[in-house]
Structure formats: C-alpha cells, structure tokens
Records
---
Amino acid sequence: MVSDRLAIETVDLWKRYDGIDALRGLDLQVPTGSICGFLGRNGAGKTTTIKVLLGMAKATRGVARLLGAPAVDAEVRRRVGFVSDEKDLYDYMTVDEIIAFTRPFFPKWRTDLEQKYRQKFELPGPRDIKDLSRGTRTKLALLLALCRSADLLILDEPTAGLDPAMAEDVLQALVGHVASEEMTVFFSSHQIAEVDQIADHIAIVDRGRMVVAGALDDLRDRFQRVQLVFADAAPEVRFHAPGVVRVTRDGRVLTVLTREREPLMTEAKALLPASIEVSPVTLKEIFLESVRTED
Amino acid sequence: MLFRPNPSSGVPIYLQLMEQVKHAIATGAMRPGEQLPGMRKVAEELVINPNTVAKAYRELEHEGVIELRQGAGAFISENAPSKKDAEKFRAAQEAVAVTIDKLRAKGVADEDIRRLFEAELLATEGKRGE
Amino acid sequence: MLWHKAWRETRGRFITGLLILTVLSAAKVYEYVVAQRMMPMAESVLSGAEKTPLGDAIRDAIAVQREFRGFIWYNSFRDNLTQLGVLFAVLLGCGGLLAEAKKGSALFTLSLPVTRKQLLGARVGIGLAQCFALAMVPPLVIPLLAPVVGQSFSIIDALVHGLCLFFVGALFFSLASFLSTMFGDIWRPMLIAIVIACGAVAVQLVLPELGLFRLMSGETYFRTGALPWMGFLATAVLASALLYSAAETLERRDF
C-alpha cells in the first residue's frame, strides 16, 4: 500500500480561513524514514499544513493522511511527536510535572531515553516552565516528543530564535535520535543551511501549493546553472527543454537556470557556444527561484 | 578525523564524505583493514542525515573502497588505493602545483585557474569512462 | 492526566470560592444571634406602618427571619450563596482550550492522542464536581455550627438546599463552558453569563414560576417542603443541551 511508504500524504489539500485560501490543492508526500525539510516563505502555508496534519484545523477539501490514517484520527497521534514553533507548554507546571503529565498518554514511553535527554539537555526538574529560557523550553518540548517512541516527528521551525550553539544541539539530538530509532522527521524551517545539513528530502511550498519536492541529492543533481558564452552577441532563444526556470541574457553570455540538466545540455550544445560552463545551484537558490517564478 | 562537510557548497554531502574517506586513504591517514567509525556515530558527530552517511558508505562499498561486514562495521578494503596510490596522489599534487605556477606566471588569476579546472572537469566528465 | 490538568487550571478559583462561601455560611449562623437582639426594635417600628405592598413585604421578611431556619434561608440561601454561587460557577466554567490557545499551549494539548470531547469532558467533569462541592459544603456547615448558638438545623434541609444550589450552579457552569468554546478570552464569557443572569432576575420578577433564583434558593421547599423536581429536571436538560453545544462547537473549531 502506498500509505505504508509514506509517513505523510496530502492529496489536493485545500484550507480556507475567513475567505482566504491558505492551502490551494497541496500535494505532499513524505517517504517513511526520511528527514524532510519543509520550506516556504512566511504565509506560504507551512504552519497551516502542519495544523491540518495534526487535526488542529480541518481541511476544507482534499485528503490528509498521517502514517496511513486520516489526519483527524486522534489515535494516530499516539505514534506522532510534535514540537510547535511557539514551544509554549503549561507555564504553571514544572519540568517534572509536564513529563509526568505526558508520559501516561504513550504506552511505549522510553524511560531510558527520558533519563538520557534530561541529562543531555540539562533540564532542571523542579523548575517552573515559565522560568525557562526559550532554548531550554525547546529542548524540553523535544524530550517530550522524542521519548514517546513515535514513528513520525513533526517540528515547526525547531531552531527559530535559538543561538547557533543551541540550534546545533537540537539538530544533533534529532540526528542522533533518528540514527538509532527508526523514524520519519518532517520539519519546517527558514534556515536553509540546516535543511541542507540534515534533510534528505525537501518540499517547497509557495502560496498554498507545492512547487518543488523530492530527494535533496536528486534535486541538487538536476538543478544546474548553465552558462553559455558566445563569440558574438548571445542569441535570443526560447528553450524548448523542460524544466528551464530562468534565462538571462547579458551581452555575449546566456545564463540558464534549469531543473533538468540533461535535456537542456543537448539543446545548449546545438547553439554552438564558444564555451559551456555548468555549475551547481545551492538549495538557497533553488528555493529563491522556485518561489519567485510564480510572481 | 572526518570533518564537517559543507552543506551549502552545491556538492552533495555524501559525495563530500566519500571524497574525505578516499583522501584519507590516499594520504595514508587510514590504512587497509582499519575500521571506519560507525554510521550512527558519524551522523551524530557531523550532525548530518544518517541516510546520507549510509549512502556514502554504500557507494564506497560499491566502488570497492570499503567493506561492510555484517555486525562488525565498515573497514577499509585490502585492495583499496594504498600507499602506492598515495604516491600517485602525491605525484598528481606536484603536477597540479607545476601547472598552477605556470598559469600564474602567465598572469592568469587564481579564480580563473579554478574555473578553468572545474569547467574542464565538468565538460569532460563522461569521457573518463565508467 | 487530563483531569489533573483541569484541576490544576481551576483549583485556585475553586479553593477561593469554597473558602469564601463556607466562611460566609458559617458567619451567618453567628449573625443570627446579633439579629435576634435587633428584632424587637424592628417589629415595633413596623407595627404602626400602613398596609402597603412594600410594607407587607418588609413585614413578611422580618417574620421569616425571626426563626433560625428562616433567617438562614433568607440571608444565606436566598442571598449570599445564590449570588456568589452563580459567580463562582461561571468562573469555573471559563477557560478551557480556547483560553489556552491565547496563551499558546493549546497546540501541545491538541497534538496529544486525545479527542476534543475527551478534553472538554475532563474539564466539565472536574468543573461539575467542583460545583457540587461549592454547593454542598457551605450548607452542611450550618447543621454543624447551629448547636454552638443554641439552634438546630436539619441535615436534610441542608442537603436539599445544597442540591438546589448545585442544579442552578451547574446550569451557569454549563453556560460559561459553552461560551468559552466560542470566545478565547476569560472576560467575554463571564460578562455574557452575568448579563444572562441579570436577565433571569428580570424574568423572575415578571414570571415567578420561571424563577431561576427562586429555584436556587430553594424557596418552594422552604415554604412548602415540596421538592422542586420540575426545576431540577429543567435545569438538568438545559445544562445538558449547553454542554452538548459546547462539544459540537469545540469540534468544529480551527486552531
């Protein structure tokens, strides 16, 4: 069944809030076992997607599935961990109390991991949550998500507002956890560098729709910048090859940004340029180009 | 001994890891028969995706550079590039040094030298043969 | 653990209410002694007054308060416990998931493997138990303390009045709970509930049969000894309808 291979799946997902379509036919597929980075501009629909997946908001139309089950099913959340972007927990409880509160909901709670992360994150047991710094609250939220033996972890901007050292701690905890426990991670982020670092899949959403999605290595392979230098003025040419994102003409230089290197190379060579240079495109550029071309 | 790959360089991380391992063998930092650090450990220390590490190790095994032994770990294979190849590597380093000196003497800027090498490599990629 | 969370979130209000109502109830017992000393003076002032509706009402009020049972009914059940009871019932009903949303932890709660009905159920369960305690404990101190001032008060009376306080209190609790599924702040549900309470007072003046606060004070039982079964039934049905609506509203809500 397709659903077994997909930890998260949405098909033609629409969500309307007060007359505004936050999601407009979103198709998302997150393969089981992957670490998937979810990128998009502010207001593109990242948080809305996550809310629909976790049953916090109801889809206006379309399908949303988590681990094969409908997103509105409360029971599937027993296998899912979540860290929100606000990382707000119960202010009036202490660290110990919120762990004690969360534990009984998850029969597969790992007390060994709880001990490990309490120490590793240096969480002060009797301290009130309202007295914790943002970084410590993030680590606490992470502990609460990681100890439940979840099959899927969903994080909304996990390192937002954290200094680089804390951010690295969080990423390391994630990567370390994924290395030893089988799980899928789906995290939204504005930090392209961290997505580059730990994700093996990405999904870029813009204005409520998916614009780029797939394995990161694959995308890096196929997305290329091809620079053609001509002896005389560069020709004005319309490329027929699929996947051409942007063509810039500057004197004798034609620069083509493409998602599909191979078809373009064939066409480019036929133009008989003086030289062809191919250079890789960074994820940042892939992102910027993908969300800009819709303008 | 393995250091952090550069995620923003445009070169896939698994390739960078493979290069690091091959480079370590070529310079003698790792010898045939020696054990590589576990995949889990590498992922955690370098803070990169475990699947990426797994892919790098798999490709290295495919190329015969390392051996993955069930339950024991990853080991540099006996017929991996050895000191002989380390010498070949050093000879190559010298050849490159000579070429760069020549180009610099001709007034070619360092940035251009780099681009020329990269362009030539990319353009003649397929010609090297599988 | 949801019940424990609901308890933690409302225990301040509950304990405050329980203390205030119990102390007031106890205080009234002692006040009887003081009031008795002033009674002959009040009677002598009024004996010469004309027969007007107001004059009659005042005479009736004084007559009722001459006995201990009447004094307690007039000043505690009809007054303090009813008014403050409504206030605390409403206070207990406010809050909940929407209020959590304003503070930010709602997403954590909603990400747990629990349905919204379960979340509401825990809050309502704790809230109704608290309303029950607030309704029963203050009346029950009266039979306990009455002997100290040389009086006696029937435990049955205390229990029946407690029930009257509970049923109407539960109704206001349900109203506040329902309003809390529509508004996220604490103030609007409280304000609207109090406005409705005032409305109920107005209705009571015009149509005494539909007197919600007459029911709450247990007036029929006090005067005639008859248990207000219809009143209990009506408030229970209304409260259930409100709680059902709260559940449905919460179910549809987007966070």
---
Amino acid sequence: MSAASRPRAGGAMVEFDHVGLRYSPDAEVLADISFLLQPGSFYFLTGPSGAGKTSLLKMLYLAQRPTRGIVRMMGEDVVALPRARLPGFRRRIGVVFQDFRLIPHLSARDNIALPLRIAGVEEADLAGPVGEMLSWIGLAERAAALPATLSGGEQQRVAIARAVIARPQLLIADEPTGNVDPDMAMRLLGLFEALNRLGTTVVVATHDVHLISRIDNAQMMRLEKGRLADPTGALRFPPANRA
Amino acid sequence: MIIPRVPPSHRAMLAQARLSGPTPWVLAILMLLTLLAAAAGLSLARGANGIGGAIAGRVTVQIVTANPELRSEQAFRLRRAAAGEPYVRAATAVPRGDVAESLARWFGTGDGTNDPVIAALPLPELIDIDLVPGSNAAQLARLRALAAREAPGARVIPHADWLGPVARTIRTLAFVAAGLVVLMALASAAVVIMTARAALGTHYATIEMLHLIGATDQQICRLFQRRIAIDSAYGILLGAMIAAVLLAIIGWQFSGVTAGLGAEADLGAAGWIFLALLPLIAIALAALTARVTLLRALKTML
C-alpha cells in the first residue's frame, strides 16, 4: 500500500487517536493509544496480565469512555456520542466475554436470541436464525438447556453464537479460549475465522501465542504497561509488511 | 402506560417470581392504612361541616325574669318580634316539657313531666332562633338589641360559642387524617423507590449485559416498571380489599347511630368515589415513581 492509498481514518472500522484512560487520579491505565482497525481484518490483542487489554476492549465495545483522546467507530466520534445513540452502535458490535456472561435463567436458545429480541425482531422470525446458529455451534440438541447445565466449552459457544447472531460489523472476544481445552480452542478460532471471511472485523484478546500463528493475515497488537506496541507493523500506515 | 406492554419472551429476561419480595405486602399495609385514614378524614370533615352548618346561625335566647307571668309574656313578645325580623329565618319557643325532660336526665326522675321538684323550679323560657345565612355578627348584634328591648336581662347564646370548638377540633382531626394520607403516599413512594433500586442492584449483571447487547434504557425500564407496577398493584388491591371490608363493617355499625356526630359521619357518594379511586391513583403513582427512579438510575450506567 502506498502512501497515496493510505487508508483514511473515515474508512476505518475503529480509530483510536492518543487515547488515555485512568480510573483514578493515579497514573493512566492506558496512555497514548493510537491505532486504526480496518474493516474485515483480524486482530490479536496480546500482552501480560494487567497490561490494560480488558480496559482497551471495554472502550472498544463501548462499556467505557476514555478520559482523553478520540475514539471513532464506523466513522463517528463515540466519545462525544449522546448516550441515547449508544445502543444503535452496540447492536453493531458483538462481544464474547472471558466469563461468558450468559444470563443464567435463560436457556441456550433464549441467550442466543437475546440480541435479535432487543433489536425488535418478531418471534416468528427468530426460530430460523437461532436454530441455524444452534446447529452451527453444535448445540441444537441442547437448545433448552440452562447455562449452568452446560460445560465450559458449550457455554463459550453459546456466548459466541449470541455475539454473532445479529451479524455484527465488529466482533470482540476477550480470552475466548481461556476456559476451554486446546481442541475446543481451535474449533472456536475456526468460528471466528469463518466470521471474518464473511466480512466481520475481529479483535481477539489472548495470552495464547500459538493461536496467533493459526490465522493467516492476522495482525497483532501488543499492550505493555498501558502502551501499545506494534510488533507486526500493522497499525502503522502504510503497514510494515505491505509497504 | 401504567403497566407497560412487554412481550412474554422479553419478560423472561428478568428472573424472580412475582410477589417474592416484601414490597406487595408493605404496600398492602400502607394502602389499608391510607384508605382507613382517608375514610376517617372524609367522615370527620363531613361531620364537622354538618355541625358547622347546624350551629352557624342557631341562637338560643334564655329569658330568666323572676316573675313567671312576665317571663312568659316577654318570651311571647320576643318570639313574635323576632319572627318578624328579616334576618331571622325561624323563631321557636322551646316547650317547657322539653326543658323539663332535659332536666329529668340529670335528676333521674323519668321524663320529668310529673316531677314535683322540676315543676317547682323557676325554669327559664327558651327561644331557638335560626338566623338567615349571611353576616352572623351583625345579625347577632341586632338580635341582642331586640332581646334587650323586649325582654330585658335575657341572655342571647349563639350555639357557635360552645359547639364551635368541637367543630374546630373535628376539622383538625380531619386535617390530621389528610396529613396521614399524604405521609403514607410518600412512604409508599419510598418503598417503590427502594424496590426499584434494589431490583437494579439484584439484576445489575443482566442489565449490563442487555446494555452491551444494545438494549435502550426504555427497553430495560419497561421490563422493571412492568414487574414493579404489577407487584405494587397486587399489594395495593389486597390492602384496598381489606380496607373495603373494614369500612363496610364500620359503616354497618354506624348505620344504627341516628344522632350526634355519628349520624353526620357518612362518606357520601363523592367520598366513596374518592376512596374507590385512591387505589387506582396509588397504582399509577407507584408505576410512575418506579419509571422515574429506574430511568434516572439507568442513566448513571454507561
């Protein structure tokens, strides 16, 4: 990519510009974070525990506003976004949490259907997509099961299905393989890759360096002590491996 | 809408069975007390108004001239003169038999008609005078002047002088009852606020998840508002039903009272309508309070 064809921030899925975050008057948890995430790309976010990965992800899925800097998402400044417009943006983002965060009194089917119900999809139109999603994650037989009766891997798959059923433009996963065995980890990664091929921008936070090599063309973002390193050069313009 | 419409599949987003907390029961007790206080206040107010109306223009003239013949003559003249005055609606001589009967209650001698002691007493001549509604002070002054002219030494006794404090006390009690109604309404609102906040705390993880999935504050609010409004309605209607039974029993007991304050202590059609509307108003207020509390609390979350 030449400098002339350098992607404009306006075309990026996400743009962080000198973003800082602090929870107290102490030092910033995140400092001077700047990057662009391109539509349809696959990113791994790595770094040691306490580096600020979860805080960065919270800003990505709009659960946290930065204390300074600019965050643009899908072309809009989400820091200054009125609160009433946040739901519209959140419906375009799928999130897979490390601890799944399934609603315990809802069945696997109802947990998966949640984003569509929130979006106002009629009940008659839910059965098809939810059934397909249950089959896709291999839990069609366990659709009525409550989360407490599912294994960790099954819960993780339900959480992923819930995150992707509304076809989000951005999928964010926080340690999605942290609670599953290596075989299941690879299967889950396959799900993310399949979604990415369908055009979804994927950001996966992980400690597992082996996962990173499994995805072709994946870019890596590394956080250390609240600052972003760019070992693959993917976050620079033009990216190091394509210049 | 007081109880918002929420599709059944959306209602399931919140766990917890109905009537599982103390809120409906507390609201039932508060509603019961509110209705009893309101009924007491209304009946006292009506009683006080009844007494007030009865005594406002009523005067008794007491003629105490020692000579019985002159006393009777003065009474006759005064009654006739008073009846001709434009500010007098009615002037009635109190029969001696009625006076004797009243005294007999104190002497304990039957109806007093054949009591030699009472017969020997120099009983005053009494004239009940009803003034036309208007400026009682001016009318009273003219009546006093008339009484002084026709029956020197006669005492003019406005009933308001001795029944007025009673009516004022009853009115004060009615205001106290109204104050209790207001206080219990505030207590009910406080219960609803605490319930709403507790519900948000209990379901915080679910709310956070719903927010992150893209639920609006209105969507989440409707879930909780519906639950709280229905629970409140159960409690309020339960309290109202118990209050209705109690008021029916009290009303039945008062139906035998034909004199005094008890006879005036009727709620009237407007009073019963007001009491019937109170539970509905309470349900609407509970739902509104829940909605405002929930929306304010939800706005503090990102």
---
Amino acid sequence: MSSSATQLAPKKQEEAKPKLAVLLVEDNQFDAELVLRALQQSGYDVSGTVVQDEATFLKALRANPPEIVLADYNLPDWTGMETLNVLLREGLDIPVILVSGALGDVTAVESIKRGITDYVLKDGLARLPQVVRRALREKYERGLRHLAEEDLAKKVDELARSNADLEQFANVASHDLQEPLRMVAAYTQLLAERYRGKLDEDADKFIGYASEGALRMQMLIQDLLAFSRVGRNATPNRSIDCNSVMVEVLQTLSTPIQESGALIKFDALPTVCANHTQIVQVFQNLIGNAIKFRGIDPPEISITSEKQDGQWLFTMRDNGIGIPKESLENVFVVFQRLHGRTEYPGNGIGLAICKKIIERYGGRVWVESQVGNGSAFKFTLPPEPADEFKREQP
Amino acid sequence: MKSGLRLLLVDDNPADIGLAREALARCVRQSEIISLENGVEALSFLKRGGMYADAIRPDLVILDLSLPGCDGLTILRAIRGLPELRRMPVVMFSTSRLGRDIARCYESGANCYVSKPGSLNEFLAAVRSIEEFWCGFAALPPAID
C-alpha cells in the first residue's frame, strides 16, 4: 500500500499545474502577495505582474498579455475600473476581477454593468480561485461561441452566394438557350409547313419529331425560367384573402372545371401574409393537378384550413388517381413526372413551383395519398401579422 | 400587286431576317426589303456614308437591340439625333422582354417596341402586323429630300 502511495505522490507532482498569467493592479505589495498566494494554493502555477498605474499597466499588457486582470478598486493615481477602457482600446478580451477592500453593493452592480466580470472582497480571498476559474471558463465558452457564430455566418454567406450563382446560371442559361432554340423551332416548323407531303413519309415524320422536340424544349425553358423567377423581384408581402384567391383561380380554371364536371368545395378560408400572384399560382397549380389527375369519377376537391403552431395549415383533398408511396416526395422535384407524356401532358414544374413558393414564406408542403384513393396536399402559410389567433397564442 | 414599304431590317441573326422576309413575302403588298446584320454598317447606310452614298431612305426601320459593332439603342439615338433622319419611324424588334430595355427604347424615341415571339406563327404574325399597321394605317412622314 505504501508503495502505491509513494508512486502516487510523484505522479501528482508531475501533473503540470495549470499555468495562470495574472496582471495585478494593486498599490499594496502585501495585498498583492496575498492574492497571488490564494491562487497558488488553489493549484495554479501563477506568474504575476504587479502594476499601479495606467502606463505600467499598458506596458505589461503589451509585453506579456495576461489571462486575467485582478484590479483593486481604489488606487492612489488610478482606479481599477479604468483597466476596462485600456483593454477595450487594445481590443483585448481579458476578464477583469475587482479585488477590493470594500465595495458597496451599488458600486459592485454598477461595475459589473460596465463590464467587470466579478468582484472579490479582500477579506474573502478564499472565493478568488473559484471566481477566476469561472471567469476563464466563461471566456473560453465565449470564444467557442464566437468561433461557432463566425463559422455559421461564413456558411450562410457561402450558401447565399451559391444560391445566387445557381439562380443566375439558370436565368442566363435559359435566356441564352432560347435564342438558338427559337431558330430550330421556327425553321423546323417552316420546313413542315412548306414541304409536308412533298418529300417522303419518313421526312414528314423526322421533321415532326424535330419540331415537337424543339417546342417541348421551349416549354421546358419557359418553365425553368418561371421556376428560377420565384423568389426574385417579388413585391412585398401583404394580406391575401384566400377566398378571393379561390374566386380568381376558379375563374381561370373554368374550362377544365366544366369539361371535367369538377365539384370544388371550400371553407371560409383565412387571410395569409404573402404575395398575391404567388398564392394564386399555388392554388391554381394544386387545383389544376387535382382536375388533371382525376380518376373515372368527376373530380371532387375540397379545400380546408386550420390553425396549427402559429401557421395556417391548408388541406386540399381530391378523389383522383393518387400517388404511389415511393413517389410522395419526388412529385415536388423539378421536372419529375410520374406518367407518360401521352397519358398526362406537362413538364413536371407545377408542384416544384408550389414548393418553392411555400418555402419562401417559411411554410411546408407535403402530400398524403394512396393509389386509387385520392390525394391530400397539405401546406402551411404564415398568417397576416395582425391575425387574431396570434394574439390568442400564449 | 400593291406596292409596299421600303423597309430596312437590321438584325444580326440571318435566320430572323429570313423569317421576317418570309412573313413579308406573305403580305398582300410587296415591300422592298434591305437587310443588314451589322450595327456600324446600318448606321453608315442611314447616314449615306461611304459605299452607301446613294442609299435609299427607308420608310421604316425594324431594329434589333443586340447587334455587333453598335447596338440598336445607339442606332436609334443616332437616328433621333440627326435632322434628316429624326422623323423616320423605328420599330424595335428584339427578343428582350426586360422592362429596362423596353423603357430605354421608348425614352430614346422608338415608335414601338415588339418582342420577338418564340413560336413561328406568332413571329410571322408580329412581322405581318408591323407591315399592316405601318403600310396600311399609319400616315408616314413626308420625305425630307
């Protein structure tokens, strides 16, 4: 047992004591020694410099920056509070602890408000090591937080830049692609017009394929442009009455509604805070889809809304063909189509645009569906700022 | 056959000049068409400079915006700045749909701005409407010389 004790003892001594560089602002040599001893006894390997005025304080600060400043409140030619100003001027984040003979509560509170980390009375020096440890830990955590914040800011910046690049790329690419494509489309059409039936059957077919392809590509580019435009040059948000949005959408879709015999029901819908055109687009795309992807029966579409977590949750339910489970998320991806072009025309941009618009307002969109059992598209939108249910929230 | 306009088409894209000629060929009146693909050349044609000393004065200029040498807006401003040309009707005909481009053209004295439509039929219709309006309905300014 004794052998293990002797082994332990040197090991303990080998364990390096944490080094602590202290800059002491103190006019009383005796007090300075007491302070340093208190720290040494608590297990620090203390190196201390003692100064009493601004000039020597600054000199010591620059020569050998300390980890902590311990300052007496009252000095013959200076005051401990002044150390804060010097540190600020030097751009140094070093905790300052007031070590004072007497310090009224009011003064203490005032000092901490001004940036002193803590204070210790000279007749309570036993508390000093603990105060120092806490100050150092807080500084360390402050440093970590600062690094994390800087890192986050950098990432946000990078993301914004890469998003902007992508938008610009899509925009430029679409515009520049349109020009040559317009030529292909126009001249294949002209060829078709002028030479249909004058060449052989194959020629007619080839020209037909070429001009259809060009037209489709033109549509794709238009869609891509529309998609990349969401989020740019949008007018500021205002209160949008979704009931009037519905009236507008029903009017726009009146032909498909009549042709399909669609029955569309909607509750008294709320007012949301958004851009009018974009909300019309969301409703129009979703209702348009519900009509387009109808089953054998005429479409029955219902739109309901409810308050949920400070947002309006809309549900648009239909009795259409439904969506297979594995495609529930894919339907929102740009140019993702689940059906052949001859079955259901379209480029697969509508839901992608809906998603982009809704997410612009901090909302979410998803779909619940089963093949053959209809779909329920759900999305959230922010309420108007003065919405009463916001006031109801605790 | 009714006689049409003397038309100057300035466009750097020969395919678009081809389409415009196609559209004009389908009109009732047969316009006399001069087409140029370069901005500097178009300007010297209008100013009757160099090899264009005997150039005709067109009744109407159809002007693209993006041109090599000097762009459509510069040509438009030059036309509006010269006493012998300033009354000449100019129709801007460009793919750009940017509000900024359109505004600048009107501010610089364009008589009209037409965006080139993407589809063949609309393109042909646009050129035909320009011809029908300027040749059939609009009163053209009397010639200066």
